[in-house]
Each structure stands twice: as C-alpha cells, then as structure tokens.
Amino acid sequence: MPLTGKYSNWLEIDRGAIEANVRQCLERTDVQVMAVVKANGYGHGIVPVARAAVRGGATWCGVARVEEAIELRRAGLDAPILVLGATPAGRVQEAIGERVSMAVWDVEHVEAAAAATNGTNERARLHLKVETGMGRLGIEPGEAAALAQRIAATPGVILEGVFTHFARADEADPAPTEAQERQFAQVLAALQAAGLRPGVVHAANSAASLTRPSAYFNLVRVGIAIYGLNPSPECPLPDGFRPALSWKAQLTQVRVTPPGRGVSYGHQYVTRGVERIGVAPVGYGDGYRRVPGNRVLVGGRAVEVVGRVCMDQIMVQLDGVPEARVGDEVVLVGEQGGRRITVDDLAARWGTFNYEVVCGLSARIPRVYQG
Ligand SMILES: Cc1ncc(COP(=O)(O)O)c(C=O)c1O
Predict the structure, then answer these.
(1) 38 included as an active-site residue
(2) pLDDT digits over 290-312, tens only?
(3) N or C terminus: which one in the chain shows less Cβ crowding within 10 Å?
(4) Which of 25, 29, 36 most suits a substitution to test ligand 1, by most atoms within 8 Å of the C-beta?
C-alpha cells in the first residue's frame, strides 16, 4: 500500500537529504552558502526546502522573484534573502520593508530603491550584478565600479554585495569560466581601488562550488546540488550528496485485457495477446511527459508505460509483475526493490535536463515531507 494512502500520486521529499547536502556544500567550500530555492525550491517546495537548508547551515536564500522572497518571509523565514532577478518598481518598497536584498545593474534601480526609503529609517540592500559572460542580466564590467560608487554615495541604499553568474561552469573545459572569473576579478580590484568593500562577493553556482575554489569568494550560491542532483553529466556530484525527491503513485486498476485491445488515446499501443494492464493516476497534468519509452517501477521491476500518457493517467504493462494489485506502489522517480529511476533518467528520456524535470513538477502534486 502507498505510504500515506491519501494521494493518487505524490512527491516524497527527504528534508534530511537537503540538510545534509547543504552541510556538504559548507564543508567542501568553507564559505557561506546561499541555498537557491527559486521556482518552488526546484519543484521540491520553497518553504520546507528553505527551512531544511537553513538547518543545514545555509546563511542565505536565493530566489528569482520578489514574490518568492515574500512567501518565505510570510512563512517566518528570517535568513537574508536575495532576489537574483529584477524586482519590479511596484514591489521595491515591500522588498525593503521585508529586509529582502535586491540585485541591481543600473542607475534606475538604485534610484528607485533610494526613493522607496525616503522619509523612513529603512535601507535598501543591493547586490551589484556584473555581466561577465553569461549574456544575461548585469552591468558591463567596465561600468561596474562607477555604479558601485554611486550606490555607496546614495542615501538609503547599501552596497551589500557584488556578484556574477557563470554560463559554462558545468562543462569539462574550464576556459570559459576562467575568462568570466578574470573579468570579475578586475571589477573587484576596481572596487577595492575605490575603497569599496561589499560584505558578500559571490559567483559560484553548484558546478563551480564543486570544481573552482578560486571562485568561492565568501559565498557560493548552490541550487541543484542541495537537491542531490547533478549539475550536468560532465559535472556529476561527488559521493556524499543524495537525491531528496521521489515521485510515486499507486495502481488504481489492474485489468486482464484481451488481444487486439487499443490502449489510451489514438490506440498507439494495441495488446498483442492477453495482457495485464495497470492504470496509475499520474499524467502530463502532473508534469509526466507524453513521450514514448517511459518506464516505471512496480513490484521492484521496471515496466513499460504503454499507450499515450493522458492528462491524469498512465497505463503500464504488468505481464512481468503477475503479483501486482490495486494499491501497489508505482515509482516514477526513486528506488523500489533495489532498482532506481533517477531524475537524470527521466531527463534523458524526455530530451531535456534534470533542472527542467523537477521545475516542471506540477503544483497539484502533493509534496509529502520526511526527515
Ligand atoms: C543567478 C543564479 N545563481 C545561482 C543559481 C544556482 O544554480 P545551480 O542550480 O546550477 O547551482 C542560479 C540558477 O539558475 C542562478 O540563476
């Protein structure tokens, strides 16, 4: 029978794994850890993940959007939070009031933040984002020191941090990351020459936190590693990290089906003989993709998903598991009877990467927290 008996399909999230993975990051880098919990904690649930990360020793949480930061504050999280993306002008005041730090890369951001503190005792905490080769957000390196000086001279705002983001730290070739790091080092030197010392300096994502001590500065921003998932095939996690997420369902029907019976929309699968076909209540509405070749675990064996994946159901071929019964556990990701399906396995099957698999887990799937 399923763990809880309450859900059609559900995610089991091991908070102890997240806590232990953060501890690993701390021990390996020996600098502060910012747990990146954006996109609902990479699908794992933003609030429980943030709490587990803080228990594991994370001093910061990183989010993409101010709404995510506010959700953490509403849940009582007191740790410093940085919004890594743009904070819309209409939310700047709220961010300041909630002690949420903001990434900035132009004068308009700085002025908006300063204006929002006018007439209050509050201070806007700003992290200057430098574009060194990601080709995304940030100020050009040559203009960074001037903006930093402007921040330092503007009442109501504090230059709390300076940071950049790597585009290719998860690849075997270190050259592109070295080039970004050199650009960032020049910016830091220019800041120092101007007498500016932001409290936190950060560049490393999970991949760089595993491979590039020169990029640790005094804080690493780790996302994928705290969930126990590999930054990339070229940059796997070392021993000691463990995945936090399993995805399970239960069989809701097992039928003996006559030969020649079409299964699911379009009848792309037709039974060849008398076949045992099971139904599990999970589908593309949960984020389980409609691609051929899906496999799940039932009774400790890997079985084929047959016919098209529906919005809320899949059908599985159970001839190899004659003992399978209604209520039996179906594992989509995780371990059963010594066999394992990883998030990377799903990603390979779906022609994507592990980040997208976990971020694509629908909000409607119940998250069951353990540990
Ligand atoms: C700015 C920034 N820093 C850190 C991270 C964490 O990256 P990772 O999950 O690869 O550790 C992300 C995630 O995409 C990011 O956008």
Answers:
(1) yes
(2) 999 999 999 999 999 999 999 99
(3) N
(4) 36
